[in-house]
Specification:
Helix content is about 35%, strand content about 20%. The chain is of the alpha/beta class. Strands 8-7-6-9-10-12-11 form a seven-stranded mixed β-sheet, sandwiched between helices. Strand 4 (about 55) and strand 5 (about 60) form a beta hairpin. The chain is globular, with a radius of gyration of 19 Å.
Length: about 260
């Protein structure tokens, strides 16, 4: 049963109407903020909002809210190595590398089945390129995983971000391949689980309701007791909001032991 959401700016209310009636929320409540945010996320998807940002000169196809929350995790862990599957234009790699430079430790490994020549050239010519290693090949190919593993030291703290092929089976294969590299108390993040909330929107497929990273993350955690889905608390919060505005629902996986 789908609801109709109405925003009444004159009376500072958000109204949810369904077959059972209507519920009014004051605009300053977490419930109102959540409802508006979910509508905004869907509208942003339809408008390709995330295709409008760069980081230090490179396009970064990510929701800014997600990247700010991710830097909170990165700063809390202070990893020696960040692994990202899915390079695209390289903006995310540059973002991570800039954080590594700021905290004066760490490096980034980017993996993609195809790194287009113009993107490779731009990344390799970037001032942060000394902190970035590019590996071309399927992220789940055994030789690629072995190559990544060979670049990690025995005492390195490792974080992993999965942003390549977002089908459930591929993400599950990536989780199985890269989760063993994640150090205790660090994280592996399955990105773009919002796909499960989008069927019917532009640029979507009907099977996204189940064929998405969120379902892969849930299945992986159910099968691996060393890992848990988590919602890290905000390090600073003087607002009424307690939930992330995110393209990555149920995507943050903590290695608990």
């Amino acid at each position: 049963m789908k609801a109709i959401i109405k925003i009444d700016l004159k009376n500072d209310q958000v109204i949810v109407e369904n077959e059972e009636g209507a519920i009014n929320y004051a605009m300053n409540t977490p419930e109102a903020f959540s409802l508006i945010s979910q509508a905004w996320l869907r509208a942003g998807w339809a408008a390709k909002y995330v295709y409008s940002f760069t980081w230090m000169g490179r396009p970064m196809i990510q929701l800014p809210e997600d990247m700010i929350r991710l830097q909170e995790l990165i700063y809390s862990v202070k990893p020696d190595v960040i692994i990202e599957t899915g390079v695209a234009h390289g903006g995310s790699l540059v973002f991570y590398a800039s954080l590594m430079k700021a905290i004066e430790r760490g490096r980034v490994i980017g993996i993609d089945i195809e790194i287009r020549p113009h993107n490779r050239a731009a990344i390799e010519q970037h001032e942060l390129s000394p902190l970035i290693t590019l590996i071309e090949g399927s992220s789940v190919d055994e030789s690629v995983v072995a190559r990544v593993s060979s670049q990690i030291g025995s005492n390195d703290k490792v974080m992993v971000f999965l942003d390549s092929d977002h089908s459930k089976n591929h993400v599950l294969a990536e989780l199985n391949a890269y989760a063993p590299l994640v150090t205790k108390d660090s994280y592996i993040v399955a990105m773009d689980g919002i796909m499960g909330q989008l069927p019917g929107a532009p640029r979507t497929k009907p099977d996204w309701s189940w064929n998405n990273p969120r379902e892969a993350a849930r299945e992986f955690v159910a099968q691996h007791a060393d890992f848990a889905l988590v919602e890290p608390p905000f390090p600073f919060n003087e607002s009424a909001v307690t939930q992330r505005i995110t393209y990555w629902p149920d995507g943050i996986i903590n290695r608990v032991r």
